[in-house]
Design a protein that fits this description.
Layout lengths: L5 H17 L2 H8 L7 E5 L2 H17 L3 E5 L1 H5 L13 E6 L6 H12 L3 E6 L5 H5 L2 E4 L12 H20 L5 H30 L10 E5 L4 H15 L3 E5 H4 L12 E6 L5 H12 L4 E6 L10 E3 L9 H18 L10 H7 L4
Parallel strand pairs: 1-2, 1-3, 3-4, 4-5, 6-7, 6-8, 8-9, 9-10
Helix pairs in contact: 1-7, 1-8, 3-7, 3-9, 7-8, 8-12, 9-12
Protein name: SIS domain-containing protein
Keywords: Repeat
Organism: Oceanobacillus caeni
């Protein structure tokens, strides 16, 4: 079978991210928009764009002292009271749509502007309704990605959100020069890690092609990378077209654990953030309980069991960039082992029926 176009986008990620890191668009935005009084960002997005806001949340709260709220477009536009309690000068609405054509996001922007809020829009595609409706604009700089399941667009938009948080933190004086540079340097190092991450994931998969036969899987994550677990679940559902369950680590033992057994297939994401010891204990239990366990490990002292894919330990960003890359490789390769195009059309009539995009 011909390899999916998704591979081309995955292999472009490092170069596209280097271009993003070198860009001045975030600095230019903050020259035009005074972020010094900013105390709240409300993200409005769907799918992968929603998942990256969950990952990025802690960067805004810790590095820029900005409270973050995340909403789907339906939840945002359908709630008449969401914005009434917030000061307009201290609140920014950030609407994200990779294609720039999401009808729900467009409705949400109209809702925010009607109430007098500044709106920052972020897209991959220029000259789209989402871009044109915003008061301010940032581009993913990922290039065109005509796929259902996005890869480079996810990594670029995630990195863009991190860079925006870091730059606002510097402007507000929360981040000193040394700490600011440490984050920039770690993002640059993470970009350099990407080729090795791709190859590590591909090598592991060559010896574990049986994962392509699973009919359901779980993904467990916590901290910064709970959002990565959400994105992994979505990405693999999009490409494998099977049901899946995502669960936050601390919640797994509050009922979800009762559903697992010898036929269960579980992926866990391991970092050194809060909860690391619980994750170690959970992995030990799962190794004795479930049929398949894959551990994506981003710690400083990784273990080398056969069920582990290791990515570089980057503690400031919790290795979130390369954890997503490793999981994108899984989502692309596993359907192909079964002769299935991971980007195949599936129930496109529903998106047309409900008007997902304009």
């Amino acid at each position: 079978m011909k390899k999916s176009i998704m591979w081309e986008h995955i292999y472009e990620e490092a170069d596209r991210l280097k271009e993003l890191l070198a860009s001045r668009q975030v600095a230019d935005l903050l020259n035009a928009y005074d972020s010094r009084k900013l105390t709240r960002i409300i993200f409005v997005s769907s799918g992968s764009s929603l998942n990256i806001t969950t990952i990025a949340k802690r960067f805004y709260e810790e590095l820029a002292h900005i409270e973050v709220n995340t909403y789907t477009p339906f939840d945002f536009a359908g709630n008449a009271t969401i914005l009434t309690q917030y000061d307009r000068e201290m609140t920014l609405i950030a609407a994200i749509s990779q294609t720039g054509t999401s009808s729900g996001t467009i409705d949400a922007i109209h809702h925010a502007k009607k109430l007098g809020f500044n709106v920052l829009t972020l897209t991959e595609t220029r000259n789209t309704p989402v871009e044109q409706l915003g008061d301010y604009y940032l581009n993913f700089l990922s290039g065109s990605e005509p796929c259902n399941a996005k890869t480079k667009g996810v990594c670029n938009s995630l990195t863009l959100l991190m860079l925006l948080a870091i730059e606002i933190g510097k402007v507000k004086g929360v981040l000193g020069d040394e700490r600011y540079q440490a984050y920039i340097d770690e993002i640059a190092a993470s970009i350099e890690d990407i080729p090795a991450t791709i190859e590590a994931a591909k090598q592991w998969l060559e010896n574990h092609q049986d994962w392509g036969k699973v009919q359901h899987f779980y993904v467990l994550g916590n901290g910064t990378n709970y959002g990565t677990a959400e994105e992994a679940t979505l990405k693999m559902m999009e490409t494998m077209c099977i049901p899946a369950t995502v669960c936050e680590l601390g919640e797994f033992s509050h009922g979800v654990h009762r559903t697992i057994g010898p036929n269960s297939n579980i992926i866990t994401i391991v970092t050194e953030e809060y909860g690391h010891e619980i994750m170690k204990k959970t992995n030990g239990f799962l190794a004795e309980t479930v049929g398949r366990l894959l551990v994506i490990d981003a710690t400083s002292e990784p273990f080398t069991d056969d069920n582990v894919i290791h990515v570089a330990h980057r503690p400031l960003t919790a290795s979130c960039l390369n954890l997503n890359v490793a999981l994108q490789v899984l989502a692309t390769a596993l359907p192909e082992y079964n002769g299935i195009d991971p980007n195949q059309p599936m129930h496109e009539e529903l998106t047309r029926l409900v008007g997902t995009r304009i």
